[in-house]
Amino acid sequence: MINFIKGMSYLSLGMVHLPTKGLKRFVILPIIFNLFVFIGLFYLIYHYLFPLSNYYINQLPSWLSFLSGVFVFFFIVSCFLFFLATFTVLFNLVAAPFNGLLAERAQYLLRNQMIPELTFAEITVRTIKRQMQFIRYFFPRFLGMCVLFFIPFIHPFFPFLWFAFNSWILSMQYQDYAMDNNLVDFKTMRQLMKQNKDESLGFGLFINFISFIPILNIISMPAGVIGGVLMFCDRHSQRLPPILIRKQ
């Protein structure tokens, strides 16, 4: 439980450090990307999910009409989490080079550590390759969760299952920026998360939770990136590569 709460605290630390001098210009682009994510989500909910939920409510037999409110709640929450996971993965793919730069700068300013210098083009290519590895991990599990959605007796539990799944995926994405920068390969990154699963789940769950809170959800991306850097440096500083240069 202590590690779970500690994991949550890293997102709070990420928020605290958003105004840090030298980080602001790296924070703006992730905020813009996240703003587009939530504009898209609320557009889909308003124009598609409400009409769709009303359609399914009308299919309910009259003797189940008293469950219509419960059905709408679970349907909207499930779809919101579904689209949140999908949009976040896609936008993180686009924003990955910028988040990588933010992670690099945060590690330098907040922990006095520098990673090997690369050009923006090199960072972009390396980061996209890493995101492709993530997608190969994510996609089959995403499809498995989609299959569960169509199993009737799982419906009451599905929002909670999806919330937990999405929390783990978000934790992986935001921890991976620092790990990739410090030359930790994807397989090792997954093993490290499993070894510290309570802390990792707490971190991802808090990111997922604030995604539902207006204003805070817009800053969740840069705060998550910075929090992931702080978590990596505090937990795995012994894994920093030999070629890493420390600021004197």
UniProtKB/TrEMBL annotation:
Gene symbol of the encoding locus: cysZ
NCBIfam families (alphabetical): PRK04949.1
Keyword NADP part of the UniProt annotation: no
Biological processes, Gene Ontology terms: cysteine biosynthetic process; sulfate assimilation
Keywords: Amino-acid biosynthesis, Cell inner membrane, Cell membrane, Cysteine biosynthesis, Membrane, Sulfate transport, Transmembrane, Transmembrane helix, Transport
Membrane topology: Multi-pass membrane protein
InterPro entries: CysZ-like (IPR050480), CysZ/EI24 (IPR059112)
Subcellular location: Membrane
Protein name, per record: Putative sulfate transport protein CysZ
PANTHER family: SULFATE TRANSPORTER CYSZ
Parts of the chain that traverse the membrane: 26-46, 66-95, 138-165, 203-233
GO cellular component, one term: plasma membrane
Pfam families noted in UniProt: EI24
GO molecular function: high-affinity sulfate:proton symporter activity
Main location: membrane
Keyword Electron transport: no
